[in-house]
Amino acid sequence: MKKKLISLLVAVAAVLMIFSVKTSTANAATNTSSNDPVFFVPGAFDNADSWEKMVTILDPNNEHPLTKFYADSNGKVLRQDVRTGNSDQRPFVIVLFPNNAYKEEVIAKDADGLRDAINLYNYKNKFTNADIVAQSNGGTISTTYLEKNTSKAGFPIHFDHLLTIGTPYNFQAGNGADNTAFLNRLILGSGSLPKDLQVTNVIGANGDDDTTDGVVSRDSALSGRKIFDGKVGSFQQLFITGEDASHGNQESSPQYAKIVQDILGI
Q: By C-alpha distance, which of 75, 43, 70, 100 is closest to 248?
């Protein structure tokens, strides 16, 4: 009887311990995630309103804090606090580039602009974890930024997720084309990516034509696998079709918004 009582007490203690660990872990995640921003990075030739529809889909009641940064190629970054939102909701941060084009030198400068914007945001609004949501050239800018910065000693930010859509990883190369020099450089630098980064690469289509989204060839978008697969914590490629899957509609795509919501838990 005594042995049975001891066994019962041990079992109860174990259950209580598991419950306690799960509860404290959940609370810790809640406390940290409310400060962790989601950075939205646009594609080439976008404007200040490019992510507005996406933000509205993700946050119809304007509960998330919203900030915009304008980062030019001369190292100047302007901040606009659009709304304060609620302190228990993750901040949305849109980074915009006046000079954003399908040119490698521009992407390199915009990657530095993204770095400066993130650093400025972190200076005023301290955080340790963040996610990046990108479209088109925003994906190559974000990848370049991550390769150039996150492996540096003492780098203070942990990036959990990178979500891209319509990204020309092989630049403007058509289907069946060899790797461009740009893609090869991204592949070469992929060893510097965060080893536990979770990457989702979304490929769109242009109506019934799934060989392109109207701007980026299917193979160029699929080339993300050559950069990320086996180099980061997880990598998946998803495909969407329909009107909102075409390149010009992806930043306001309900399908992409659903993917963002599901993966980031927004």
A: 43
Are the C-beta atoms of 141 and 132 separated by less than 8 Å?
no
To the question of pTM greater than 0.85 for the whole model, the response is: yes
Give the range with max mean pLDDT: 10-19, 45-54, 109-118: 109-118
CB neighbours (10 Å) of residue 52? Answer: 16
Q: What would you report as the CA-atom Rg of the chain, rounded to the nearest whole angstrom?
A: 21
Amino acid, single-letter form, for residue 220: S
> Would the pLDDT of 199 be above 80?
yes
**199-to-23, 51, 111, 140, 159 alpha-carbon distances in Å:** 28, 20, 18, 13, 10
**Alpha-carbon span 191 to 189, nearest angstrom:** 5
